[in-house]
UniProtKB/TrEMBL annotation:
<dbReference type="InterPro" id="IPR045851">
    <property type="entry name" value="AMP-bd_C_sf"/>
</dbReference>
<feature type="domain" description="AMP-binding enzyme C-terminal">
    <location>
        <begin position="567"/>
        <end position="645"/>
    </location>
</feature>
<dbReference type="InterPro" id="IPR025110">
    <property type="entry name" value="AMP-bd_C"/>
</dbReference>
<feature type="domain" description="AMP-dependent synthetase/ligase">
    <location>
        <begin position="96"/>
        <end position="512"/>
    </location>
</feature>
<dbReference type="InterPro" id="IPR020845">
    <property type="entry name" value="AMP-binding_CS"/>
</dbReference>
<dbReference type="Pfam" id="PF13193">
    <property type="entry name" value="AMP-binding_C"/>
</dbReference>
<keyword id="KW-0067">ATP-binding</keyword>
<protein>
    <recommendedName>
        <fullName>acetate--CoA ligase</fullName>
        <ecNumber>6.2.1.1</ecNumber>
    </recommendedName>
</protein>
<dbReference type="Pfam" id="PF00501">
    <property type="entry name" value="AMP-binding"/>
</dbReference>
<dbReference type="GO" id="GO:0006085">
    <property type="term" value="P:acetyl-CoA biosynthetic process"/>
</dbReference>
<dbReference type="InterPro" id="IPR032387">
    <property type="entry name" value="ACAS_N"/>
</dbReference>
<dbReference type="InterPro" id="IPR000873">
    <property type="entry name" value="AMP-dep_synth/lig_dom"/>
</dbReference>
<dbReference type="Pfam" id="PF16177">
    <property type="entry name" value="ACAS_N"/>
</dbReference>
<keyword id="KW-0436">Ligase</keyword>
<comment type="similarity">
    <text>Belongs to the ATP-dependent AMP-binding enzyme family.</text>
</comment>
<dbReference type="GO" id="GO:0003987">
    <property type="term" value="F:acetate-CoA ligase activity"/>
</dbReference>
<dbReference type="InterPro" id="IPR042099">
    <property type="entry name" value="ANL_N_sf"/>
</dbReference>
Length: 684
């Protein structure tokens, strides 16, 4: 356990870091920051000059409306200019003579599986895949779903889409068939790129059959997916056998834990990547995109209703991904960078693919988990590739802390310089362990606060200059103008909690919710006219450090994954035994937060272990394994206001076993509270 002082002291960047850093002092940061806020056009224009634009800006460099009362919310950067992000991420480096530089080292789930790809080889394969997509009729503006594990082909897929102007919609490979189908339908995608299957730890995930199910679900709802490209990723010893479309006549047996994996094949729709991609032409001109053309959509949970397709556009996202990567990780040529996030989440989009590639960086892509074959795997990989900049989530740090220091110290780690964290507030205990044990009290820690919607880091320390306070994401990135306000949009005093809002656009901000601009305006701009509302609570201390405290809406952050309580509730209610469900968050020592679900059952139905198992499975099927509830409780009645609104505040207290309920004068029937306390499982 770290002593109290260690948790509350301020840590200064070490001289080895700041001497060579892009931003060496707080004075320099303050100056650059001031310029970025007072003259955003000038600030980003200078940055844009380092990128290739086919045609220059022909309208305003920045035009926006952040105020719903003045008309629709709109944001545009670099009007009329055209570019291509894939060109800037690959061709530019190859033309500069860096084609032989390694773009990605790939480390498989099995420590014996590895590979690497240079910038020029990556470009070649991206062009080939882009041609395959074109041959299948995919063109600019079409949507392509990507549902893959952490393999190099995933990056190739996203870059190939970007090259031809197709909008990629990546769905994390932990989502269920129903979730994949829902996202494909919402985005009206024309094609799906997937993989036969993959190993995660000791578990084999049968991705192709989940994909098949999702395609069938789409077709039931009238969306025909005509192209499904499949990467053969499992080794031949895993014995994937193609079948004739009926899914029978297959008896391949995997080498690893007894498993038979059948790959159903639909002629005309399904195509093996290894059969079509290498055969395609290696030449593929870029589609020159308007800076405000769509680049990708990525779904994020909504506090009500279905997930939102967060839409990012080409030009602004490119500048922001590249610039945040460069400064937050203090990137220099020669760095070996590794972000453990999955490309299925925004962190993987911006900081596994686009950000590093736009900077010409060499990175590691890791398919496996931090615990396989043992909990020293991350540090073994750090040593193997001599990683200098490392980026992971607090939930992983907390989980690894439990295994003790020896598994870390066994490895050298002397290559490390910067350690990043993202996804949720990091508790000072975990921060100090990360700093002292993983970083040997030598590295800077960057605690990066941002969102799918923001495209890149918004509040973060910079490794060469920011004095670090454990648990605080510290100061705004260039171009971000934060305020912390109360319900009436008045700034709160120092150390008071309020809503974290941003008052002017930065290049990487989302432009709309795919197909639902009104939802975009309502979710982010309606509550505080003139501001983008993050939905997070925060405080600012007397030194100006920002401390993000977590979601203010009905969202739960489980292991860094944002889940909507409404979505989990609707999955539970779909079960025939459940009449009503209310889901709240509960603190969890490793996951940060966990979900606690109250379920009201139909008359005569008993709350049994079997039912609990079924209900958990219902959520897994509907959303995905990572959303499985941690705790379910029988709730013959729920605390409600007289107008019938569920009092979640009270349920949160019950989940935590806290009888200090505060004001319950609006509650219709107080007796339900005692019943709920009496039914609270003793294991909580
Ligand atoms: C939370 C992930 C505190 C926050 C990049 C935010 C954080 C949500 C931090 C976005 C951090 C992310 N400190 N909270 N450093 N980073 N969050 O869209 O609640 O998956 O709103 O993007 O994660 O999650 P998302």
């Amino acid at each position: 356990m770290a002593d109290k002082q260690a948790l509350h002291q301020t840590y200064l960047p070490k001289s080895e870091l700041f001497e060579s850093a892009h931003v060496k002092t707080m004075e320099q940061y303050n100056e650059m920051y001031k310029h970025s806020i007072e003259n955003p056009e000038g600030f980003w224009k200078d940055i844009a000059e380092k990128f290739y634009f086919k045609t220059p800006v022909q309208g305003k460099f920045l035009e926006y409306n952040f105020d719903v009362s003045k008309g629709p919310i709109s944001i545009s950067w670099m009007q009329g200019a055209s570019t291509n992000i894939c060109y800037n991420a690959l061709d530019r480096h190859v033309q500069d003579g860096n084609g032989e530089k390694v773009a990605f080292f790939w480390e498989g789930n099995d420590p014996a599986d590895e590979g690497k790809i240079t910038y020029s080889a990556l470009l070649k394969q991206v062009c080939q895949l882009a041609n395959v997509l074109k041959n299948n009729g995919i063109k600019k503006g079409d949507r392509v779903a990507i549902y893959m594990p952490m393999i190099v082909e995933l990056s190739i897929a996203l870059l190939a889409c970007a090259r031809i102007g197709a909008i990629h919609s990546i769905v994390f490979a932990g989502f269920s068939a129903e979730s994949l189908a829902e996202r494909m339908q919402d985005g009206e995608v024309s094609a799906l790129i997937t993989t036969d299957g993959f190993w995660r730890g000791t578990k084999l995930v049968d991705l192709k059959s989940i994909s098949d199910k999702a395609i069938d679900l789409c077709s039931e709802k009238g969306l025909q997916i005509r192209t499904c490209l499949v990467v053969r990723h499992l080794s031949p010893s895993d014995e994937i056998v193609e079948t004739n479309g009926n899914g029978d006549q297959c008896d391949g047996v995997a080498k690893r834990p007894c498993h038979k994996l059948k790959v159903k094949w639909v002629e005309g729709r399904d195509q093996w990547w290894h059969q079509v991609v290498p055969a395609a032409s290696e030449e593929c001109n870029c589609e020159w995109m308007d800076t405000e053309d769509s680049l990708f959509m990525l779904y994020t949970s909504g506090s009500t209703g279905k997930p939102k397709g967060v839409l990012h556009t080409v030009g602004g996202y490119m500048l922001y991904a590249a610039t945040t990567f460069k400064y937050t990780f203090d990137y220099h040529n020669g760095d070996i960078y590794w972000c453990t996030a999955d490309v299925g989440w925004i962190t993987g989009h911006t900081y596994v693919c686009y950000g590093p590639l736009l900077n010409g960086c060499t990175s590691v892509i890791f398919e496996g988990t931090p615990f396989y074959p043992d909990a020293g795997r991350l540090w073994q990989i750090v040593d193997k590739y001599q990683v200098t900049k490392f980026y992971t989530a607090p939930t992983a740090i907390r989980a690894l802390m439990k295994y003790g220091d020896e598994l870390v110290k066994k490895y050298d780690r002397s290559s490390l310089k910067v350690l990043g964290t993202v996804g949720e507030p990091i508790n000072p205990e975990a921060w100090v362990w990360y700093y002292n044990v993983v970083g040997d009290a030598r590295c800077s820690i960057v605690d990066t606060f941002w969102q799918t919607e923001t495209g890149g880091h918004t509040i973060t320390s910079l490794p060469g200059c920011t004095p670090m306070k454990p648990g605080s994401a510290s100061f705004p990135f260039f171009g971000i103008k934060p305020s912390i306000v109360d319900e009436n949009c008045k700034p709160v005093e120092a150390d008071q909690e309020g809503y974290l809002v941003f008052s002017q656009p930065w290049p990487g901000i989302m432009r709309t919710v795919y197909g639902d601009h009104q939802r975009f305006e309502t979710t982010y701009f309606k509550k505080f006219p003139g501001y983008y509302c993050t939905g997070d609570g925060a405080k600012m201390d007397k030194d100006g450090y920002i401390w993000v405290t977590g979601r203010i809406d009905d969202m739960v952050n489980v292991s860094g994954h944002l889940l909507s309580t409404a979505e989990i509730e609707s999955a539970l209610i779909e079960h025939s035994s459940v009449v009503e469900a209310a889901v709240v968050s509960q603190p969890h020592s490793i996951k940060g937060e966990s979900t606690y679900c109250f379920v009201t059952l139909c008359q005569g139905i008993e709350f049994t272990e079997d039912l609990v198992t079924e209900l958990k499975a219902a959520v897994r099927t509907k959303i995905g394994a990572f959303a499985q509830p941690d705790m379910l409780q029988n709730a013959p009645g729920l605390p409600k206001t007289r107008s019938g609104k569920i009092m979640r505040r009270v349920l949160r207290k019950i989940a935590r076993g806290d009888r200090d309920l505060g004001d319950v004068s609006t509650m219709a029937d107080e007796s339900v509270v005692d019943t709920l306390f009496s039914l609270r499982p003793s294991t909580v």
